[in-house]
Inverse folding.
């Protein structure tokens, strides 16, 4: 199952609104094939694993399938995975996590059991839940998992008003930020960020199968017509709702199958999300540089704890250190 979780990661950033799924086929005590959901409309993990076994000259008949998520039993972009497993003749299916989607939820397991295939569930369930955190959150709440990314200087400032807007973190950090963007369905900022920075808010480092939706909170229509994000081929949503309507905005995004949104706005936007209890995850990036005319972030560990966040560990992105916080209910 650890291997199945590992190969599932190959679909990250490419399969939303579908979840990450990996499948390993084991026969006579050895791995004979592996598969993962690679892109929308492509083979599901179970189907890819069966195809992989046959391509390698192995029969999947009698194999044990390790799958990170309960196999689907409905027609969507592809036929049901339960049918593929039954057709392949697997003897047992071991599942990490039940699929909370109402179209699946337990039905896949029952179909397999009714066909005489031994089925077990719960192996590395918490690991699978962490991997599918945004998908599970969306299934339960029908709104996106909210991540925040904020970079601050040595004194907690987010910008230097003494000069034109510019990045003050390293290239290595920028590459990690773009990896984070690639793993989100939408990026959200306030209109002040657009006016000050004129950002593109696209994924430009690493391979991007798709670009996230750009969302600008702009209740008074202040977004300049010449702004980058209004003059390229990628989609931008100008949200005319005020900060008091953020829950409604998140519900609208959830209805559009947006499962994870990344907040890259300034302190005003971030604080409104925090005060509304809407932040699920926070990446606080620390730079060693110092701004001459600082713009305080007013973000501290104490404030994040006060709003239900808990430090989940640290990491290094390029030359910067990063504190990673999660809402306590999301730590699972």
């Amino acid at each position: 199952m650890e291997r199945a979780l590992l190969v599932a990661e190959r679909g990250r950033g490419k399969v939303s609104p579908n979840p990450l799924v990996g499948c390993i086929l084991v026969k006579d005590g050895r791995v004979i094939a592996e598969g993962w959901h690679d892109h929308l409309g492509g083979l599901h993990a179970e189907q890819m694993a069966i195809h992989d076994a046959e391509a390698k000259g192995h029969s999947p008949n009698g194999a044990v399938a390790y799958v990170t998520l309960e196999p689907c039993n409905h027609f969507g972009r592809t036929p049901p995975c339960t049918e593929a497993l039954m057709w392949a003749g697997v003897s047992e299916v071991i599942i990490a996590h039940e699929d909370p989607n109402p179209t699946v939820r337990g039905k896949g397991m029952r179909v397999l059991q009714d066909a005489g295939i031994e089925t077990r569930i719960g192996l590395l369930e918490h690991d699978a839940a962490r991997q599918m955190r945004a998908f599970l959150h969306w299934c339960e709440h029908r709104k996106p998992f909210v991540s925040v990314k904020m970079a601050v200087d040595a004194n907690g400032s987010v910008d230097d008003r003494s000069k034109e807007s510019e990045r003050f973190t390293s290239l290595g950090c920028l590459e990690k930020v773009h990896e984070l963007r690639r793993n989100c369905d939408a990026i959200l900022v306030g209109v002040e960020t657009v006016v000050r920075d004129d950002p593109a808010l696209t994924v430009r480092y690493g391979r991007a199968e798709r670009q996230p939706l750009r969302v600008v909170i702009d209740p008074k229509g202040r977004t300049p017509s010449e702004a980058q994000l209004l003059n390229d081929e990628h989609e931008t949503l100008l949200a005319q709702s005020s900060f008091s309507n953020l829950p409604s905005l998140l519900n609208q995004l959830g209805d559009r199958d947006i499962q994870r949104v990344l907040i890259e706005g300034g302190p005003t936007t971030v604080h409104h999300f925090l005060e509304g209890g809407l932040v699920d995850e926070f990446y606080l990036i620390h730079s060693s540089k110092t701004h001459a005319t600082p713009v305080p972030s007013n973000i501290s560990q104490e404030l994040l704890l006060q709003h239900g966040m808990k430090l989940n560990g640290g990491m290094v992105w390029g030359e910067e250190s990063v504190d990673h916080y999660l809402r306590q209910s999301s730590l699972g």
Summary: The chain is about 30% helix and 25% strand.
